[in-house]
Amino acid sequence: MIKKTISLLLLLTLVEHAMAQSRQETEDWIIHQTKVNPYGLKHRIEGNELISRLELPSVTIGGGIIEKAIPIGQITTIAYTHTNEYLSYAIQCDRPCAFLLDESDKKQSKFLFEIYKKLDASYVPRMNTALLHLVKLHGGKAKIVRAEAVKQAF
Q1: Is residue 85 part of a domain?
Q2: SS3 (DSSP) at 95
Q3: DSSP character at residue 74
Q4: Which domain holds residue 108?
Q5: pTM recorded for the entire structure
Q6: pLDDT 10s digits, 13-51
């Protein structure tokens, strides 16, 4: 009886592990979801870092390219806001760990990961699960929290 129970538990563990998305599949799916963003805002994963690239139009003051990264395995909190227009994540580590690629020694507290598209309610839990799985695959452990959307006065 004990032998059968152990065999069954081992089988269930193997099946669960086999059904989980690989690191590459998870990364590809998450980045593919951001393809809907307006021109100028792109996300990518390189090695162990999630990177955002914001290309500012030359007509704006300080126009140019801003690239910011966060080490995925160090992420501990993923706070999300879902409105009719977008899904936004404020991603943090226990201590400041996000940085501009051209100023890697200056750590910042938050990294923004955004998807600008009208999304149905079933999409948010799927993305939340994918982000948590991504952190786990990079050796970390994070929690998801819902952030309140800031209401504008006018």
Answers
A1: yes
A2: coil
A3: G
A4: 18-146
A5: 0.81
A6: 444 444 578 999 999 999 999 999 888 899 999 999 999
